[in-house]
Design brief:
- The chain is an alpha+beta fold.
- It folds into 2 domains: 137 residues, Endonuclease Chain A (Endonuclease, Chain A); 132 residues, Yope Regulator, Chain: A (2-Layer Sandwich).
- 46% of the residues lie in helices and 24% in strands.
- The radius of gyration is 35 Å and the shape is elongated.
Amino acid sequence: MKILPPDSISSELLNLIHSANEYLVLVSPYVSLAQWVRLTAALTSAQRRGVKIKAFVRYDPDNASSWEELEAIGIKPRLIANLHAKFYFNETGGLISSLNLLSSSNAQSLEIGCKLDTEAELQELKDYVKRYIVPLEQTERPDEDDLYLSKEKFTVVLENYLGGCTESRTRVFFKNNAIQIQSVENSFYLHLDKGANRLSLSAVVSGEEATAFEKLRGQHFTSEQFDIRLDIRPSGYYSTVCADYKPRLSTTYLDNLRLPEKKSLLDAVAAFVLNVRDFKDAVYAPKRAERAAQKAAYEASLKEHQAAKKAGVAAGLTELAPNQDNSPA
């Protein structure tokens, strides 16, 4: 075994690929070949020589691009749960390294690696694959919903998700340094603090709704994921119900959130939107009930009047009808 200097690790990897005649094993959780032209060319050349290539990458819906890039050049990867190991070998030599098959790792990262070239060392790598990696292989790909959530832009996902949850026309778009949400006939704003990796939501409320907030908040704003407060604005401006998201985000680039974190955030935003809708419904429920009662009373009075009018007409017709006892014989 020989420790390699950082600037020779990628060269050793390429030599390993070029020298393969029978088989090549690639164990790399993450793969990105787009900017690593020499690596792509080396793998393509090995395939043309008839080298059997086995590639093992990490099973993760957020990692779909890794296996898609390998498939694009004709290599079918095997998906391994929790894979973090990184090593590469052919029939004559091997390389254990911190290097993923990422163009960014090759160009920017400080890596370490060691070269293996004895039969005993190569056999240990083969045994490692059989004993520890192959048993964790996932034969089924992540489901389509998870792949969609991991690959689509967050604003698009949020718009579709809210539309389904609220069963209302929903629009999500970026404007004035915030993500604006139009849903359940109301305006919402999603704000990001990029320095602190924090997120907050706000919903526009009327003066009447702001007045009723303290009375009704306990019934409608109970989520443990938010700190809820009312922001009263001066005359001429809308007040807002504000919700500070308690979990700290791993990144404020929402497209790059990992799938579990993205799912939690989608659920939290949808819950807040629905809570605001229900709160507003509750504010106006007494007035709606009063109007409904007035309408019912009016309709009942109208029916009674119409019934009385109909009865009066019928009585008048009876009086005008000829008496059969006085009819001529």
